[in-house]
Amino acid sequence: MGTVWWASGGGPLAAYAAGYRCELERRGFSPRSVRDRMEVAGQLDRWLAAGGLSAADLAADRAGQFFAALRAAGQRRVPAMQTLAPLFAYLHDEQVLPAEPAAVTPAEELLVSYRRYLTAERGVAPLTVLRYERMARRFLLGRVSRTGAQTGAEDLCGAEVIAYLAGCCSRLRTTGSAKREAADLRSLLRFLYLKGITATDLGTAMPPVAGWRDTRLPATMSAADVTALLEGCDRSRPSGLRDLAILTLLARLGLRSGEAAALQLGDIDWRAGEIVVRGKARCQDRLPLTVEAGEAIAGYLKDGRPSSRCPKVILTLYAPYRGIHPSSITQVVYRACRRAGLPPVGGHRLRHALASEMLRQGSDLVEISQVLRHHDLATTSVYAKVDRAALRTVARPWPEAGR
User: Fold this and answer.
1) What residues act catalytically?
2) Cα 210 from Cα 169, distance rounded (Å)
3) Nearest-CA neighbor of 223 among 354, 371, 329, 347?
């Protein structure tokens, strides 16, 4: 229905009505969602025609004016900008809308170059690239506003770097956050030095953030609690099948949240019983696919995963169907904890639980390191502290304890 009256209206978007409807259906929108988005696009089409505007004139600010016009006309429920996001994407693909403008300021150009360096030369994971870039943006644009510099890296000195880091540490609550901020800043300073923007590597001028390594026991869960999380998934619903697949990947194979989100259909070798894990720094490791994990994934693919061209294994529950974000996996673990009546924990806690359970069952640190894919055995050695039974056999009596 929406396509008929929209296409017959003769507006600037009329020629794209049928194709837009097909695109919405292809992306997995429900019939009601397709109808709603077609109606909003039809209103936009009439508004553009009334103003003598063409489809190429459509932009974010134009959409804002359109929504303001709906409010001024007394429409009670005005849709959000996100409603038109599929339309903008479709018109971009059809080359109706011009390409996004490139970065124009020297600071933005430097940030683009930094992003390219992180991705192409260092092979940093996409989410880590975003984190590094956010810090670099804060640092560089802050200097631009304070000093009037072009890129934010001109005349940078070690004293200013130390002052910035000290200010960050005073605001951050944990030592881990301060160390992460220092590592992000050190990456930017290394890039500036390698590109010849700064004469010296100012990262060497940064003092280390105070804090002892491995002073705490690794946070873990009992095997019974992990089983309760898995059994709390409702296998009669697609959402429950998806949650079970996610939790099994984390708890039985030791995947990180980002690795579970990055898993693709082609990474699973059903005949060999193996999966390819896309880990940090573009590393790809092959892991055996356990029976429990394989059944959980197969159940989700068969009865829970929506039909989509997306190559990712785990998809969003609602259209447009796309690969799940690692932060959404954390929310899945939170909800599973609430269902099981347990305190909320992150997905990494299940990875710790797997290592602790392997240690309890007699696996050595080398075997655990291989499953968790640690590049340094020292990273795995922290789990030795949770094996209290083994520690008792090597503990020496405390002097004068018997007196």
Assistant:
1) 256, 280, 348, 351, 374, 383
2) 10
3) 354
First vs last C-alpha separation in the chain: 91
For residues 132 and 333, what is the distance between their CA atoms, to the nearest angstrom?
26
0.85 exceeded by the pTM? Answer: no
What is the CATH architecture of 223-390? Answer: Orthogonal Bundle (1.10)
The DSSP letter of residue 282 is: G
Q: Note the residue count of the chain.
A: 403
Strand partners, 285: 277
Token digits of residue 67: 């929504």
CA distances from 261 to 10, 201, 279, 317 (A): 44, 36, 11, 14
What phi and psi values does residue 286 have, to the nearest 5 degrees?
-100, 130
Instruction: Tell me which residue has tokens 């996100």.
Output: 82
Encode pLDDT of 303-341 as tens digits.
999 988 899 999 999 888 889 999 899 999 999 999 999
Domain ranges of the chain: 2-93, 106-205, 223-390
